[in-house]
């Protein structure tokens, strides 16, 4: 079955505060988006849809062509929306008719290794309709209200959600068509329509570049082991 990967890269990166959209921040000689696409193109994708800020569509296409090489026909670039959910919806509109499964990936998870894409695709091949890569939560977690600690939460019941998240295409389309509220990720949106979501192991290298400290971490990892 044909697989499309939607790479959402249309955010402004407010918390990073780099002065340019986060996907276009340099990690080494290459941008966040370029590194993210290296992982995406290692997967057996039939289409790669990049969702870029509306004034960066041309820049995104240039980055994608550099990574795709002879596979540049697989690349579609569209403009994003005001929220991540709107950006994913814009990407879904551009997915080709013959695509049967869709992975949605944050460009900000720039160092996600190819094995994670493989695990998600394998789980879809095994018949799961919605697949979420997760990591165990290592911190002790509390429920709080204001500065008052309410109760501890058993962390064995918790998992941190990552991307790429994978879905049978018809299910993701239906969930987005029915979406009324904003959800923080695609797994939450799909689960709200009653579809069970299954986990596969995530990877520490899939952390999301969100703050300046995360940017330092990504740059340090690249300096030690070029990706
Ligand atoms: N994203 C998007 N369109 C938006 C908002 C976010 O495509 N309107 C993408 C980002 O580009 C990123 C991913 O969703 O790859 C995860 O979002 P986040 O880390 O929150 O990125 P930003 O929204 O850019 O950062 P911030 O929230 O700090 O502004
Ligand atoms: Mg954001």
Automatic annotation (TrEMBL):
Positions bearing the site annotation: Transition state stabilizer: 15, 22
Keyword Nucleotidyltransferase part of the UniProt annotation: yes
Pathway assigned in UniProt: Isoprenoid biosynthesis; isopentenyl diphosphate biosynthesis via DXP pathway; isopentenyl diphosphate from 1-deoxy-D-xylulose 5-phosphate: step 2/6; Isoprenoid biosynthesis; isopentenyl diphosphate biosynthesis via DXP pathway; isopentenyl diphosphate from 1-deoxy-D-xylulose 5-phosphate: step 4/6
Claim: RNA-binding is one of the keywords in the record: no
Region (2-C-methyl-D-erythritol 4-phosphate cytidylyltransferase): 1-227
Superkingdom assignment: Bacteria
Similarity-based family: Belongs to the IspD/TarI cytidylyltransferase family. IspD subfamily.
Protein name stated in the entry: Bifunctional enzyme IspD/IspF
Species for this entry: Microbacterium laevaniformans
Classification of source organism: Bacteria, Bacillati, Actinomycetota, Actinomycetes, Micrococcales
